[in-house]
Sequence to fold (525 residues):
Amino acid sequence: MRVSPPASPVPPPGTTTASGRFLAVAVPTKPLWLVPPRVVLQRRAARTLLMHALRATSRIFLLIVADIAAFLMVRAALNVVQTSQKLEPLDAATRWAVPPLGSAGGWQMGGALVVGLLIAGAYRSGDDWRSLRRVFSGVLLAVGLVLWRDLWLRGLAPVVVHYFTAVGGLGAAVMVNRFVLDRLVARLIRIPAFHSPAERVMLVGSPDDPASQRVHKRLAHFGVLEVVGWVSPTVPELPSDGPGKVLGSVDDLWNVLQHNAVDTVVLCGFVDDVQMKLLMEAVVSAGVRLLAVSRYDRLGWVRPSPISYRSLPFMELTVPSLRAQQMWVKRGVDLVCAGLGLLAISPLLSLIAIAIKLDSRGPVFFAQERVGQGGRIFRMMKFRTMRVGADAEKAKLAHLNTSGDARLFKIPNDPRVTRVGAFLRKWSLDELPQLINVLRGEMSLVGPRPFFESDLVNYREHHFGRLGALPGITGLWQVSGRSSITDFEDVVRLDCEYIHRWSLWLDLEILLRTLPAVLRRTGAY
Fold:
């Protein structure tokens, strides 16, 4: 059931209740319901992840432009050396050492340069794209690819000379262009009228700690990372403004992230295991990156990877779901599989629709409001398996609920189910129209199972973690027993485990396990 508006004044958005768990907000055209800060952050996560992806795409695009410009500069210089009459006095030996335009200076070198730098990792984030080692490794590979054929046609000596000449010229030009680009972007970001692409960074640590101050100064020096404030590991008793602005404590992290637009959290010191788990859950829900000065790998679902900013080493702590690229890949797989699936089973869908119409009066499809990612409400499609008006009878049959939990309402031999409906439920065929929800972007092939909006009233804070991903037609809960799992905490655990462990291989594994689970019909009623 939904909560009616209380008689007492309603706290404004951004205010927590006495329990400290929920934010009261008014949903347009709907009664008041209580939304925790975690769900507010989940709704914002997609945009945050998109901004990370756009920054990465912009960086790669600008670097490729700068590298092609470096190649054109070197090519123009070669052309001057080869054709200028003012350089006629150069002796034959000097001209012999200059690579000809047809090989090292040819257009094939431009493509090879981009490929070589890409393989060498010179387009990665952090300091990798500024790395002298990575740039020259990419140039060495690119020139080698182009001159490999000449080695057999022109002999070893001239090719070796041209190889090192080209590597030196191209490598220097690429590094100079990237240095200029770096300084140009840093200056543009400081212009107030320029829409800054700088990552907004929140530091976790004490502003008075010398080690934390070093991290702050290093990140703020170049202006590419904008520091918005600090979060203290303990209850803050520090200034609330200025360079040492303290936004709150780690225990109040959900509200701090909700009221401050943050792209990246930097952990400057150590926190205990409880705070680390809270920190990781918060950044995962918000789509925010987490960088740690020290290595943290005590959480089994966290993947640490080294990264550096301005020669300052960090460990980036992430989970598979915290990547915009993975979200796009998952969405692409959903679109392709759902589209092809609907085409392949269209004859079966037609037969089911005819059977439903012949069996009982009423519509073929049944649309029901469910809660999706970030608490958003959508209408989930199913084949109708019950008689018309079955929802109105739910309260009368509550005593038959085998789980004893209204959030897991399941009745064996439900008297409301029609004859065709019983067959469809037995083989899970009533779920097939949800492929339409997948095409709409409301669901995924694999994910947490969507529940009713009324269930949110009885959710405890950790239950909202299962709203951090698109709901799925199938998932860990379904392949682990479906209705035979009657403890809601087990359902939440399985859904959160899926979110933390997500990978395309895990999706494939669940999809492959779904068919045997359907054939076994365990918990299907």
Summary: The two ends are 24 Å apart (CA to CA). The first helix runs from residue 37 to 83. DSSP finds 14 helices and 13 strands in the chain. The CA atoms of residues 122 and 129 lie 4 Å apart.
